[in-house]
Specification:
The chain is of the alpha/beta class and 220 residues long. Helices cover 35% and strands 22% of the residues. Belongs to the TRAFAC class TrmE-Era-EngA-EngB-Septin-like GTPase superfamily. AIG1/Toc34/Toc159-like paraseptin GTPase family. IAN subfamily.
């Protein structure tokens, strides 16, 4: 909380290569802060911080409207085409210590809605997040399902999609207390849709009692 009439939330983007992680960050910020394009290799090699302008009309407290600012830390993907797991984790921890000294509100685990989450992928992803965020990772993780437009084109509503989802995805969603959001990467998100997504994130943060996750930086 920066002042009595405004609020800042700190978000961490995590995900595999070409899941739309950086593009999702740009969508939430309504900016082009993060490099995002189709590539045969991992695009992001170091962490970068993006900040939104103050947004009104999204959150109120005690009958007063607050100005919301969103800070997003974009990260290298894991698995990465040129960095080891240890290198990615070290870079993320370094950036968290630099940019989010007061702590992290939520990590957004980005998965593609148009691709199945296989068992090995799920285990690898969970292990990576556990090692990065620690034993309370479930309380501070939200699943962001990108490319939701492709699922919609295939005739799946959100409810129908979840009814047909793999046991791996359903288990992951259950472990993070069903904190998930669908995001369309293709269309330009209008202001009202972005506000709806941000309100969902704020609701997750509120249900978590506005706790901040403090992460220790590993020297080296």
């Amino acid at each position: 909380m920066a002042a009595s009439n405004d609020m800042t939330i700190n978000l961490l983007m995590l995900g595999r290569t070409q899941t739309g992680k950086s593009a999702a960050g740009n969508t939430l910020l309504s900016s082009y802060d993060f490099k995002s394009h189709l590539s045969p290799s991992s695009v992001t090699t170091c962490c970068s911080l993006g900040r939104s302008s103050c947004m009104s009309g999204i959150i109120r407290r005690n009958s007063c409207e607050l100005a919301l600012r969103v800070q997003i830390l974009d990260t290298p993907s894991y698995p990465h085409s040129s960095l080891s797991k240890e290198q990615v984790q070290h870079e993320v921890r370094r950036a968290l210590a630099q940019h989010f000294r007061e702590g992290l509100h939520l990590a957004l685990l980005v998965l593609r809605a148009d691709l199945p989450l296989c068992h090995d992928d799920n285990d690898q992803t969970i292990q990576f997040i556990q090692e990065l965020l620690g034993p309370t990772w479930k309380d501070f993780t939200t699943v962001l399902l990108t490319h939701a437009d492709k699922a919609e084109e295939a005739g799946f509503s959100e409810d129908a999609y979840l009814r047909s989802a793999s046991s791996n995805l359903l288990s992951l969603l259950s472990s993070v207390q069903h904190k998930y959001i669908f995001l369309d990467n293709q269309k330009s998100i209008i202001k009202e849709e972005r506000a709806k997504i941000l309100r969902k994130l704020l609701d997750f943060i509120r249900k978590n009692d506005h706790q901040l996750l403090l992460l220790k930086h590993t020297k080296g």
